[in-house]
């Protein structure tokens, strides 16, 4: 905590200041836009961009993560509070803050319980399918704001403004950096400059609204924005807490996943190490802070963090500078912001989420593993058809389903001895000698509830095809763990072969596995012996036969 | 399908007839009791015991499974339909049948998609915790029927009858078989005879009600039972289907798990092989049949199947005989059954579920693996505090959580060469020689999304502690699969070491893994070579160094 401050070097300051400035200019339109996605008053997005990054700077472990509103989390927030309160209402604001508090508490609890491994619950294809599906939903949801009316109608002045802004932003995205480079700017500066297009378009929209009579023609604007800093805003009807518990849990989970995947990509570039348990605490504290300052659920945003990084952020001081600048913006007169036309804000949202339509992972998965590609498709479709919450559950179910399905087909090899050596190999692949009374099986998987049935069935199957076997040797060289379910199945196998007067022997059991097995009754009841090596088992069981 | 009929031998008939008879006598009180647990009219339990076992005999794969009402499935049914319709109402019956249809359809679909691997989603400790929690909930729910009034009140005549029946049943359970044996009955017959105690106590209760004025004193009975076979009963308000979809899915899942765990235990004793995909189809068809005959969700019951097995059942003919006998019972005058006192029925339920309070698995887990014991406790507590549906979800989450948590700590060994040999071993455990410019890591786990971050971090950590390494060799002898997420992480590792001018080499890649990798861009972009053996890598990379 705050280690970066103790080690702060003066030469890190310019980078942090420039990054702080750039991200603040990105944050104003983005925060307001994502608050709108969440069905909240735009100023809430700025509230949620002040305290959370400060708190994250104190507790988080990433140096360049920019914590604040994020499109997908806003979509999830809208899905929860939408049915409970009208968009933009005071109740919606209170519910959103409650939701952030629940998510934050969940994250803090997970962090204290050291449950950082939760980040491993989604495969990347599933994560990508979820992101793409959510991006499409968000973009589609903004169409009516962009066009100024519910589809299929449209309000001509709003639509002209919205589509115009959209065109400008798309052009800036495609050619902005190139144009700035040709104007002589250094590549890094040009890239960052292009990222400020939304702020420029927003300022242009405000200027247009104040100079023309578009407002009188019915173009909607954000409306009055209360000046001053946010204040504690959790007065609430207690009846809502229960309804927010399960969604808060899901949102906390996605807050963590989204932030980790972004932070990991950046940490890799800087050879920094992320500590997932610290991240849980940092994000949890940031969400609690968001709740206490009238905000809504926040997370680390990959796109914003990448800008922060590119603009030179060396330490979380950059985020502190951003937060300070946003606080100043709220303390200054905010009348000008009230003129911001909503169609322009919708255009910035659509362009931002179009950047999430990353198809590379789908392509890789399609070429490499059709199952993973199907999981991508099913998750994306799930979000589109059943909604973003169902999408999370489908994503987890698919990730876990793939895992269990793969585990349910463990590799087991019948071993034979390479003549004249002490080497044992799969008899299907090598010309190896076997003994009729000896069946040697190598289990190439950790034994756990997911594969224990398959392993048992395979062993029974091999025993059936080797009716003359009097000794069954399980070579455990590839087994690093045996859970309780597998232990019980081994004990059942032991009883079963005992009834058939077949010996059950274990060879090459790893140290940690053996330590565990000593706590069980399997070893004393084992109808056979333990062997250090397969060769030992081969020789001794062979000898026994010869003597008999 | 029906293979057993083609191979039927005459000497199998006596066993099947005796088992059919015994199970029918068990089924009448049990069916009625479990219908009561589900909040349905008792006769529904008998309906659900006729068509489902017949259909299961046609499609299932277990020879001795007795399919019909089961306590935990009834509890889950009650949890779903309880809030939607008053207990015992006609609507409750329609909803229960709809629920069976949804569960059956889900099971059939899973069977057709060959998703038998779903049986591997619960670890045994979680399954046991779920069963024990459910048993306690069921027993507690029956207390008010046993005592004839809502707690803390009680209705003296009902309570006397209920507690009397309970005492008799407990005594029969504890001493019944021993007593019968001392009377000279053979052990098997004595054990089976003791299992018929519920039927005898029920008959005694009916006799008592008809002989005394207990009914006038307010002891409730099952009431009029319509004679005749069930008829199609799915006229329904379509608005309910949606509400039943998710619970139907969960119930289908538990129907499958409960049936499989029971059937597996029996199949093991008979050296029979269960085909999980056939089981899905058999159970799915049985539930659809239950729905079409006015029943409710059914499954294979371990306790009843064990009696079926012990009473001599050789083939599903035993179940067909049971079904025929129950159909006859319904066609005969059913007036006598209407006198069955509910407190006695409650007593049979309580004794039946007390038999589920099996603590052996918890004991084993506690000794062997505290994590599994905690999962037992959390699942049991989840059922008790949050209900049976939440219990299923908690159970799956804990099973998966344990899995991902274990996966997130993969074993990776730094290898060195045993001097003068071609053997490579973990340098922490063996005195092995290393080369400063060569870092050889053996990855002892399949690479997938659950451990990919941990593996990457460990590799970076080893690179940091071996700053002189110019070549990183990953020994893949223990890696049987690499999923898309892991493939992408390997590609990132490749880019990352390339930037640092370190070679990335792969050794001992298994055949199937190599086939997969050929479909990716990792191999052409690899900043190093593939080696058949670690020794090859050691020699060649060493030589390169020497020459340089």
Main features:
homodimer; 548 residues; mainly alpha; Transcription Regulator spoIIAA; six-stranded mixed sheet; two-stranded antiparallel sheet; 23 helices; 8 strands; 62% helix; 6% strand; transmembrane (chains A, B); SLC26A/SulP_fam (chains A, B); STAS_dom (chains A, B); membrane (chains A, B)
Count of individual beta strands of chain A: 8
Summarize the largest interface: chains and residue counts. A-B, 61 and 61 residues
Helical content of chain A stands at 55-70%
The helix/strand class of chain A is mainly alpha
Count of folded domains of chain A: 2
Please tell me what the overall shape of chain A is: elongated
Question: Stretches of chain A where pLDDT falls below 50 for ≥5 residues?
Answer: none
Measure the end-to-end span of chain A: 70 Å
Brief summary of the model shown:
Chains A, B: Pfam families: STAS, Sulfate_transp. With 548 residues, the first copy, chain A, is mainly alpha-helical.
Explained architecture:
Two copies of one chain form a homodimer. Chain A is mainly alpha-helical. Chain A has two domains: 14-221 and 252-404, no CATH class; 412-547, Transcription Regulator spoIIAA (2-Layer Sandwich). Helix content of chain A is 62%, strand content 6%. The first copy, chain A, contains 23 helices and eight strands. Chain A has helices at 3-6, 13-37, 43-47, 51-59, 71-81, 90-112, 124-147, 156-182, 187-195, 197-211, 239-270, 276-292, 302-310, 317-331, 342-354, 360-368, 370-386, 388-407, 452-465, 484-499, 511-517, 522-525, 534-547, and strands at residues 67-68, 299-300, 412-417, 424-426, 438-443, 471-475, 503-507, 530-531. In chain A, strands 4-3-5-6-7-8 form a six-stranded mixed beta sheet. Chain A starts with a helix and ends with a helix. The interface between A and B is large, with 61 and 61 residues. Chains A, B: One of its GO terms (cellular component) is membrane.
């Amino acid at each position: 905590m705050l280690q970066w401050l103790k080690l702060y070097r003066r030469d890190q300051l310019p980078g942090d200041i420039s990054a702080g400035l750039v991200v603040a200019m990105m944050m104003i339109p983005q925060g307001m836009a994502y608050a709108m996605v969440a069905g909240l008053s735009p100023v809430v997005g700025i509230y949620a961009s002040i305290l959370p990054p400060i708190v994250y700077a104190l507790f988080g472990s990433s140096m360049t993560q920019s914590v604040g509103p994020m499109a997908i989390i806003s979509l999830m927030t809208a899905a929860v509070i939408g049915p409970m309160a009208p968009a933009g209402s005071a109740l919606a604001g209170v519910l959103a803050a409650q939701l952030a508090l629940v998510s934050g508490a969940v994250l803090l609890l997970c962090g204290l319980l050291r449950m950082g491994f939760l980040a491993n619950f989604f495969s990347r294809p599933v994560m990508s399918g979820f992101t793409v599906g959510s991006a499409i939903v968000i973009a589609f949801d903004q169409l009516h704001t962009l066009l100024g009316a519910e589809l299929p109608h449209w309000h001509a002045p709003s639509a002209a403004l919205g589509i115009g802004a959209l065109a400008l932003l798309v052009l800036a995205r495609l050619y902005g950096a190139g144009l700035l480079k040709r104007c002589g700017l250094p590549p890094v500066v040009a890239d960052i400059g292009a990222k400020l297009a939304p702020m420029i378009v927003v300022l242009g929209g405000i200027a247009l609204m104040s100079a023309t009579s578009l407002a009188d023609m019915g173009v909607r604007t954000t409306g009055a924005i209360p000046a001053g800093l946010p204040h504690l805003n959790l007065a609430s009807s207690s009846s809502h807490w229960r309804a927010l518990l399960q969604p808060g849990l899901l949102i906390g989970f996605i807050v963590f996943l989204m932030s980790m995947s972004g932070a990991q990509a950046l940490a890799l570039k800087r050879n920094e190490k992320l500590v997932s348990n610290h991240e849980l605490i940092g994000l949890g504290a940031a969400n609690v802070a968001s709740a206490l300052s009238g905000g809504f659920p926040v997370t680390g945003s990959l796109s914003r963090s990448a800008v922060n990084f590119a603009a030179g952020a060396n330490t979380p001081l950059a985020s502190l500078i951003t937060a300070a600048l946003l606080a100043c913006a709220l303390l200054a007169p905010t009348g000008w912001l009230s003129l911001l036309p909503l169609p322009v804000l919708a255009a910035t949202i659509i362009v931002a989420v179009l950047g999430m339509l990353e198809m590379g992972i789908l392509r890789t998965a399609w070429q490499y593993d059709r199952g993973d590609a199907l999981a991508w498709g099913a998750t994306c479709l799930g979000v589109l058809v059943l909604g973003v919450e169902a999408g999370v559950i489908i994503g987890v179910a698919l990730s876990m389903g793939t895992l269990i399905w793969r585990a349910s087909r463990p590799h087991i090899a019948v071993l034979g001895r390479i003549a004249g050596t002490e080497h044992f190999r799969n008899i299907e692949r090598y010309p190896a000698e076997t003994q009729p009374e000896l069946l040697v099986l190598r289990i190439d998987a950790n034994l756990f509830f997911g594969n224990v049935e398959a392993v048992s069935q395979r062993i029974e199957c091999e025993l059936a095809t080797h009716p003359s076997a009097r000794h069954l040797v399980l070579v455990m060289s590839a087994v690093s763990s045996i859970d309780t379910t597998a232990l019980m199945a081994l004990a059942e196998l032991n009883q079963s072969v005992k009834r058939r007067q077949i010996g059950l022997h274990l060879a090459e059991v790893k140290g940690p596995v053996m330590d565990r097995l000593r706590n069980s009754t399997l070893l004393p009841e084992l109808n056979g012996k333990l062997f250090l090596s397969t060769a030992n088992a081969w020789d001794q069981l062979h000898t026994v036969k010869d003597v008999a």
